[in-house]
């Protein structure tokens, strides 16, 4: 690699991270397998004027676009140049009217997994609902049928097997945040654990 492209790669890797070519699988608990998607729905609730429930068929018919990003796991691996097919956050948000008090979102996944995000980070143009990764449908291990992707925060915020969004006035810790991870998780500021600023 030339010095030039080396330094460019270095600029893309946050402190303490190492680039991996693989795609490690990390989560707590078991992988959900589905055989009847008519039982799957996606709920939008909390501080909204009216709750919405979106069926699997409707969700998969939402407009999609391509996203390219780098992802950074708190366990120190980073994976560069991911190509995703995803549903923009705004496409789901068109289904509800947020109440003005809504400032945070709790992501809800299968088996009660949760992750919290400030509204602004959730609504960022770079955040999306991922359905395909590097040309393939998401595998069960990586979050089929849909996962959150918030590439500017550590990857634990990118909840796999996403089933709902809850809008909140105040921040609350999700699953990993209750277990010692940082409330925000900015990889560029090494916000790995809750004692880091
Ligand atoms: N539902 C769910 N999503 C989850 C997790 C989890 O335990 N449950 N773990 C998070 C963590 S800690 C990481 S690092 C990433 C890993 O995603 P991957 O297995 O696709 O690499 O998923 C995140 N999303
Ligand atoms: Mo993680």
From TrEMBL:
Q: Cite the InterPro entries for this sequence.
A: OxRdtase_Mopterin-bd_dom, OxRdtase_Mopterin-bd_sf
CDD domains assigned: arch_bact_SO_family_Moco (cd02109)
Kindly give the Pfam families that the UniProt entry links to this protein.
Oxidored_molyb
Q: Which residues cross the membrane?
A: none
| Top-level division of the source organism's lineage | Bacteria
Concerning SUPFAM superfamilies, the annotation shows: Oxidoreductase molybdopterin-binding domain (SSF56524)
The chain positions of domain Oxidoreductase molybdopterin-binding read 29-176
Q: What is this protein called?
A: Sulfite oxidase-like oxidoreductase
**What organism is listed for this UniProt entry?**
Paenibacillus xerothermodurans
